[in-house]
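Entries read sequence, tokenised fold; example below:

***
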Amino acid sequence: MFRLVLKTVKERKSGFVGAFVALFGASVLITAFGAILQSGIGSGVPVQRYGAAAVVVAGKQEFLVTEGRNTKTRSLPGPVGVARSLAGTTASVPGVRRAVADLRFPTELVGKDGEILKGDDDRRTLGTTWAGSVLGPFARVGGRGAERPGEVVLEKSLADRAGVATGGTVRLATTRAAAEFKVVGVVAYQGPGGTLRSPPVFFSDAQARELYGRDDQVSAIGVLATKGTDPGELADRIGKKLGGTPVDIYTGDGRSGVENPDVAAARGRLKELAGSLGGTVILITMLVVSSTLALGVHQRRRELALLRAVGATPRQIHKMIAGEALVISLPASVLGCLPVVPAAEVLRGALSLIGVVPGDFAFSYGPVPMLAAVAIGVLTAQVAGFAVARKVVSIRPVEALSRSGTEEPTLGRARVVFGVLLLVLGLAASLLPLFFGSIFAVAGAGSGGLVMVIAILMLAPPVVGRATRLLARPFQRRFGTLGRLAVANTRANARRLAAGIGPLILAIGFASVQLFIPTTTSEAAEEQAAAGVIADYTLSSDAGGVPPAATEDIRRLPGVEAAAGTVRIKLFASRKLLDSPEIFDYDAQGVTPRKLDRLLDLQVDKGDLAGLGQGPDTVALSDGAASTLGAGVGDRVRLHLPDGARQEARVVAVYRRGLGFGDVTLPHEAVIAHSSARLDDSVLVRLAPGADKQQVAGELAETSRKYPGLKVMDEGGLPVAEQRTASAGLFGSALPLVLVFGYIAVAVANTLVMTTLGRTREFALLRLVGATPEQVMRMMRTETLMVILIAVVAGTVVPLLPLMTVSLGLTSSPVPYIPPLLYLAIVAATSALAAAAVLLPTRMALRTRPVDAIGMRE
């Protein structure tokens, strides 16, 4: 049997090329997403500042929520500090030579002109304690350590950038107003990478603790081991000593995430990307591969019918098709793993360009994604082969040969039932935002759109048949005889045509759902932010943020009625649903509550934002978050703050503009006390009635001397930091979709080429009865136009309902934001690809003499 399979594949290479291409593309796509997931688990960048530390102890990077016997865990989005008192406990563990409490806080060099001194590669500096210098490979090249307030030690690259040496002075912007510091020493980094990602400024221990802002907490505890101590064993001993304490213990590459919070955040985003699209990618590849294999077998129906008629048993047919699937899928899947490195590097560069990952973030490559891609490819091919073979052997041998020359007039009952069921489920999910205002409804509607697209893909033959009947009269009137011939072809071969139209619908529908929901959300967020900021000025900073003290200084300026610092974070809320805990992540903002109504208009429906001034355990929620959490004004909601602390906060207001300002609004003090944020993202400023605007603008500009990097945006507006976050989120989600859309596009071309080349004998017959090559081409152009029209209309209409309901749920408007140029680009690219995939093979087929082509095999 295996020899027969090999001979069949060898003799019918052209018939198996389509399946090979589909499986090869599936393997490339799955391996690429596997590399993204593996990179999210890996280190990303080498260890630098903690290179001399055998073990690093940091705050627990996750939290637990328990309801009854059910427990759920969620990772925290940012760095989590650890109790300072644990440094002494850690130092008492056998094998520990020294335990050093390390701090990290924003620090920037300030030039003589008052501007922030950035390096050529835009690297950010950080402030830390002089005691922490022993945790990294730093060699002193001059001076001494920082021992008293007002003294600093610079890393050599920073000293060169500032143009200072030991004994000189440097101006630094920190979490306080900028100040002059004496440079008492210079150290040089001598570790891996050659250049530090975040060159440190070492302060005296007392001053570092003051600038860090929390005396009870440190960023991490670095452990220096005694000679000959194994880091893994030491980590186990420390873990036992600190048992019951919420900490994470790192060795090896894991230390990198502690010293580089931006890398840890990037790894989290990569895991989110892989997780959110991984299942969709696998489903799409399975649909495409199954459809391609089924089309290949369908084109061989005469050969398989003859085998059944001469006595081939169902078991033999199953084995033969399974063998063919294995022979094609195994090498295609293996070869598809090979280009993963260049493909992933291109993807990494693009993700770096839009700010999803740092520029020096390195992707991880290993055998697991490749093995998974091969396994999925082979398994998908076998399942598809079994389904096709089952259909072939279901026909009685006597009927098999007579039925092979024509297409089945109807679909199988199981396919129809499953397709209709998916369509009903997709419709039901798409309507959820009409009845519920929670995030579940919006997410369900988005998923419902994809389910409906897949349902139409399964029901494509009857959809194509009905669409053809609608187009019959206008096409016959417009194109005459060739139009009638094209209509007759599509009616008689609806299943064959559906094999080509289905991927076209999938391409347009998938792109519409995945791209236009984010564009609708982003557009609504920008509109809400622009309308909601009623302050006269918004201040942001090039130094990475605005020190909180700046808000108080600005509030005291003559002519200023109100000023509020705002800081953006991510946090979680949880509630009990059906005896199980459910956790929701939200964008949140911390704001100074004093006179907030003079600065922000969040469109409060219930309650009053002034209630945020009653204490740090108060909160205001968007209407969507309130609905999801089942809370109203006066109720308590369970929040999990950025450091994992749990807070039962009382709801004081419910507002509508959650997209523009975050679904959760907290008092500024609650956010600063429980997050790694030491700086505000922006400061909102409102002028007093009758104030001289030009005079206040001058006073604000004067304030920037005290707080270097401060930028004033006139007439309010969305802060720069928030604009960057929104853009990175939108493009970061859209970029991997390009890979998926590219694979679908290849599948479209692959399927249409297969269906077109399968009609070579049909073209030859038309020419033998008198049709010229140009007439055949005109017929195919007419048929291609019909194919494109059906695909564009179906691919546009099917996702339109969920897009409208999602827009209604998010923005209270049923009109989604669909960028015209983006939509036209999707349609134009898909249509051009379809036209090329049909007309070019047709032109090639017409080069063969009709008398030769009519005798060719199927």
